[in-house]
């Protein structure tokens, strides 16, 4: 698809990636409609870490400052053993000084709200499933089936998640997502007056837990553990206490204070086999539909935000969807692989392997902060393209 004039764009999926794409296209003057199958935009997931690369992209869209204001600062982050001993610890001010931005921990709902509120009323249609009929080509528009019938579009953005029906239609020979071996739990816990002093993860044998303070005396707590795909507990709250109840403070106290009704559990699937392209015809794949990854780098939503900026800038600055694939496929493939490698370290269970892993982490933690931060530089130092009408 050549860049040409885009008179109509349709986004399939109203998650963070789809909404960011809609806002980026809107900022470029492209009429866009978002079709979300769910009846509401109630976000799946409790908390979100917006790394410097994503914050810069959101700045381009005018919502970065709002989300920074909603983030709760905390003095340190790092990795501990279940006993509580720190293996590696970083002052968060060092992250901000090194990259020009912090890692902003916000509620997922706040990100959704910021994006929706920046879009014209009526852009997002909930309870509105949309299915790709034909991807179109240079001379023909794409066709999408909605509840109102079949509509044409110059551009379709498929942000329909890890089980993307659009991806399966475009690349039927691709094996699709593979199970990572991990299942995850996520919850937000109200903690009036009991805010943890540090954020970070606790790594055990074949499982980890994370603690992230949020605004409003809330804490985002998550866990990941090896389990057969599809495994579920009769009582997920009791399961969390079984897995993590004897780990270091404040994790057991937080879990005891949690609301069992607010615990989300999902297995982790990832596109460990890269797609041949992130587009076909007039359709661009974005976010989990293009490069679903394990959560161990905290980059899933961040990469979807990057996708959105690159897509909008490419199509309005003389590029085409092939250029979008060229810009995004190598980067996201590397980050998917990096998340997989970290997952392999978390998955270690033998005492000898866990001891070797933890020793390596502790030794790395003795290095000057700049050496550790430089390891994140290829991800965090990414600079978003300038959108039309924006100053460099």
Properties at a glance:
alpha/beta, 392 residues, FAD/NAD(P)-binding domain, single chain, globular, 6-stranded mixed sheet
Question: How would you describe what is shown here?
Answer:
The chain is an alpha/beta fold. It has a domain at 9-74 and 103-177 and 271-347 and 371-380: FAD/NAD(P)-binding domain (3-Layer(bba) Sandwich). It is built from 13 helices and 18 strands. A 7-stranded mixed β-sheet has the order 5-4-13-14-15-12-16.
Quick recap:
The protein has 392 residues and is of the alpha/beta class.
Looking across the biggest beta sheet, what order are the strands in?
Answer: 5-4-13-14-15-12-16
Strand percent estimate: 15-25%
For the sheet with most strands, the description reads: 7 strands, mixed
Shape: globular
List the helices and strands and how they pair.
Blueprint: E1 9-12, H1 16-27, E2 32-35, E3 47-50, H2 52-60, H3 64-70, E4 76-80, E5 86-91, H4 92-99, E6 104-107, H5 108-118, E7 124-125, E8 131-134, E9 142-146, E10 149-153, E11 155-158, H6 165-170, E12 178-190, E13 199-203, E14 207-214, E15 218-226, H7 236-244, H8 251-257, E16 264-270, E17 279-280, E18 283-285, H9 288-291, H10 300-316, H11 321-346, H12 351-365, H13 369-380
Parallel strand pairs: 1-2, 1-11, 2-7, 4-13, 11-18
Antiparallel strand pairs: 3-6, 4-5, 8-9, 9-10, 12-15, 12-16, 13-14, 14-15, 17-18
Helix pairs in contact: 1-5, 1-10, 2-3, 2-10, 4-13, 7-8, 10-11
């Amino acid at each position: 698809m050549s860049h040409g004039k885009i008179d109509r764009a349709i986004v399939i999926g109203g998650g963070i990636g789809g909404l960011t794409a809609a806002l980026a296209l809107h900022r470029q003057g492209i009429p866009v409609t978002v079709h979300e199958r769910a009846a509401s935009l109630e976000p799946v997931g409790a908390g979100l870490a917006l790394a410097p690369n994503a914050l810069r992209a959101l700045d381009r869209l005018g919502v970065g400052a709002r989300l920074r204001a909603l983030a709760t600062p905390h003095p340190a982050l790092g990795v501990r053993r279940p006993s509580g001993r720190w293996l590696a610890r970083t002052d968060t001010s060092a992250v901000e000084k090194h990259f020009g931005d912090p890692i902003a921990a916000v509620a997922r709902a706040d990100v959704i709200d910021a994006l929706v509120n920046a879009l014209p009323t009526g852009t997002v249609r909930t309870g509105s499933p949309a299915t790709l009929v034909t991807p179109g080509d240079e001379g023909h528009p794409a066709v999408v089936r909605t509840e109102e019938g079949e509509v044409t579009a110059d551009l379709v953005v498929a942000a329909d998640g890890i089980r993307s029906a659009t991806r399966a239609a475009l690349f039927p020979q691709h094996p699709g997502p593979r199970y990572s071996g991990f299942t995850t739990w996520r919850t937000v816990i109200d903690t009036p007056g009991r805010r943890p002093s540090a954020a970070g993860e606790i790594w055990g044998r074949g499982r980890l837990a994370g603690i992230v303070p949020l605004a409003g005396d809330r804490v985002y707590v998550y866990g990941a553990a090896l389990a057969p795909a599809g495994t579920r507990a009769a009582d997920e709250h009791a399961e969390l206490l079984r897995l993590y109840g004897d780990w270091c403070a404040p994790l057991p106290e937080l879990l005891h204070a949690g609301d069992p009704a607010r615990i989300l559990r999902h297995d982790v699937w990832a596109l460990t086999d890269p797609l041949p392209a992130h587009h076909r015809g007039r359709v661009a794949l974005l976010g989990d539909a293009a490069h679903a990854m394990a959560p161990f780098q905290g980059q899933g939503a961040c990469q979807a935000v990057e996708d959105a900026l690159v897509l909008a800038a490419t199509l309005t600055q003389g590029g085409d969807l092939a250029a979008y694939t060229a810009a995004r496929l190598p980067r996201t493939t590397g980050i998917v692989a990096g998340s997989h490698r970290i997952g392999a370290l978390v998955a270690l269970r033998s005492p000898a392997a866990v001891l070797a892993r933890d020793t390596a982490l502790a030794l790395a933690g003795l290095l000057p902060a700049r050496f550790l931060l430089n390891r994140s530089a290829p991800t965090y130092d990414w600079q978003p393209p300038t959108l039309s009408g924006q100053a460099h």
